[in-house]
Amino acid sequence: MSVLNSFRLRLILGLVVGALGLLAITHLLTITFFHNYRIVIHPSGLVLMAAVAIIFIAFGVSQIRKGFSPFEELRGRLAAYRDGKGRRLDGRYPTEVQPLVNDLNALLDHREGVVERALAKAGDLAHGLKTPLAVLAQEAERAKSAGNDELAATIGGQVERMRRQIDYHLAHARAAASGATPGARSLVITSAEGLSRTLLRLHSERGVSIRVEVPPEHSFRGEIEDLDEMLGNLLDNACKWARSEVRLASAAGGSSVVITVEDDGPGLDPSMWRSALQRGVRVDEAAPGSGLGLAIVRDLAELYGGSISLGRSPAGGLKAELRLPA
Fold first, then answer.
1. Where are the beta strands (DSSP E) in the chain?
2. Could you give the CA distance from residue 100 to residue 93 in angstroms, rounded to a whole number?
3. How many other CB atoms are found less than 10 A from the CB of residue 234?
4. What are phi and psi of 312, to 5 degrees?
5. Distance between CA atoms of 133 and 150, rounded to whole angstroms?
6. CA distances for 45 relative to 41, 49, 50, 169, 325, angstroms
7. What distance in Å separates the CA atoms of residue 123 and residue 125, rounded to the nearest whole number?
């Protein structure tokens, strides 16, 4: 990095060059004065002058450091906002910095308002589509009652596909909004335990158990709804294929939290691990769903700067490793 790209170094360089210029002028005037008036300075006077000079220099350096402190504070406030520990850039700043802070706060407020309006529009659209879908689902039931099983299955399948698409794009929009407006923090244990209770009831007839091993302090930097969406898809997929047990665990990984969901089912061929994360891919037509579950997890994780990978569980089934910002 060039020296002249640093504001701090530019300021120090300017002060040093200016001080050298003043020193040269002062030295010239002093020599002229003493030469004309033939004044002799006592050594103690030189010591006093040196002490005064050192005091002035120290005072000047302290003022420079104090002048830079608002920028350090502003940097810390921005980092806190990014990490979800604040919603605005609070604090008192010098008159030269305060207009910048005011503009940044106005920009953050505007951005948050735009995101809220976009989410409201997306919600209105989803609500408007769900009513016609409910009507179509009723028509499918009527067709089935009338003996038109093939027509009922076709309509029902398309209705379910459209519902999943709506849920997918809503989750995508919500995650994009959460990434654009940082600030939320969600405990992994809260989401994991709540989803486990729900899925245990849904899969109670199969006798599948869910083991949760999540430290209470592990958190995800994002909305709880998005964490529920990701973990819900992974747990539901694991419960469908597990023989007897599903395990959900989390571990700290630097600035990330790594969440692992694994089962003791038949697993998945390694050649299918990558394609299973693609939208619309069904790894087994016998399983219910539209092939969007793992794709939703992948897209949401990537929107938050995370990732998901598949592997083989020590229990023999599929292992999904979800890495999210902590």
1. 186-187, 209-213, 219-220, 245-253, 256-263, 307-312, 318-325
2. 10
3. 26
4. -100, 130
5. 18
6. 6, 6, 9, 80, 64
7. 5
Q: For the whole prediction, is pTM greater than 0.85?
A: no
Average pLDDT over residues 134-154: 83
Q: Is the pLDDT of residue 2 over 60?
A: no
Is 268:197 a contact under the CB 8 Å cutoff?
Answer: no
pLDDT in tens, 174-212: 666 655 455 578 899 999 999 999 888 888 888 889 999
Contact between 196 and 208 (Cβ < 8 Å): no
Q: CB 116: neighbour CB atoms within 10 A?
A: 12
Q: 122-152 burial by CB neighbour count: b if 16+ within 10 A, else e? A: beeeeeeeeeeeeeebeebeebbeeeeeeeb
- Contacts of 236 by beta carbon, 8 Å cutoff, 6+ apart: 199, 202, 293
Cα–Cα distance for residue pair 115/127, rounded to 1 Å: 18
Pairwise CA distance, residues 190 & 178, whole Å: 19
The two structure tokens encoding residue 153 = 């299955």
Place of tokens 């700290």: 252
